[in-house]
Amino acid sequence: MTAKVGSNVGLKCFVQQNSLMLSTYWQQALTRETQATSNLQNLPMSPQDIKCKFNHVGVAVDDLDAAVKWYTDTLGLHQIIAPAHMNRKQDPNGIVFRVYGSDLHEVKVAYLGFENQIGFEIFQFVDPPHHGGTVACPARFDAQAWTRGGFFHIAVTAAEPETLAQKVQTAGGKRVGKSVTLPNGETALYVQDPWGNVIEVCSADFKRLITS
Question: VOC domain: from which residue to which, for each copy (predicted)?
Fold first, then answer.
């Protein structure tokens, strides 16, 4: 009986020791796997892996407050955070001055958003001052504007483009050309805000707009 008890105790100790060893082994294995996964996640992406989403667009005007009111009232954008007024004398190491360089000394920026999370920044450059289109003298949309290169319009989606175009005109904007009906029945047209910035108004999202 004593030998049997001793044998059971030894077996119990053997099982406990091996269980502890197995537990330690699996913990170490899990740690190695976690570390390996972390290392893979920290590896720089190859150019083939990079996928972009549209983030925001920026526009410059001579009157920030007026532009914020126009875009919120007319196109239904919303303010995300309060506007910022940045002055190099007060914050020489401010982010905007590190990006724009030594020529910029003072600027106001408003941060608006569309319903689909796309951002819309409005800039009023104070020093040096804005010298683009104004309400009194809007930027022209002509052959020179089309051919000078670079971005020359943004586009928004609205269920009733004609209704929005009329609202734009009532709010001080301008109609550009005629509306067009595409082969798939969707509608597109161009308008300008009071500063002359060009906005295309489409009745459907881009993929739907260009496919039948």
Answer: 53-204
